[in-house]
From TrEMBL:
SUPFAM superfamilies: Dimeric alpha+beta barrel (SSF54909). PROSITE patterns: S_R_A_B_BARREL. This is Dabb family protein. Residues 2-97 form the Stress-response A/B barrel domain. InterPro entries: Dabb, Dimeric_a/b-barrel.
Length: 99
């Protein structure tokens, strides 16, 4: 199993706008579970502490293999959802690891 973790800095500055952005991103990404083979789980959440110094939001997803993660990256549904993410974010970091 491969865990894919992404953290973002959001364009929005105030907490309400940040939550709205995270809600939009979650609505675009979370339904991909069951639609992309090998994507086992996916959640998007907003940071709730130390907003001035921490990243604003996180995605955590599990994929059955590195190959499944590669399929996810390029899958048309993920690419479409990614446009929602890109419209709401200004920075991104990622790590993928075996669990």
């Amino acid at each position: 199993m491969i865990r894919h973790v992404v953290m973002w800095k959001l364009n929005a500055e105030d907490p309400e706008a940040q939550q709205s952005a995270v809600d939009d991103m979650a609505a675009a990404l979370e339904p991909l579970v069951g639609q992309i083979e090998g994507l086992e789980s996916l959640t998007v959440r907003r940071n709730v502490a130390k907003a001035e110094s921490n990243w604003h939001a996180i995605l955590e997803s599990d994929h059955c293999s590195v190959e499944a993660l590669t399929v996810y990256y390029t899958h048309p549904l993920h690419v479409t959802a990614g446009a929602v993410v890109k419209a709401n974010t200004r920075e991104r970091v990622c790590v993928d690891f075996e669990v």
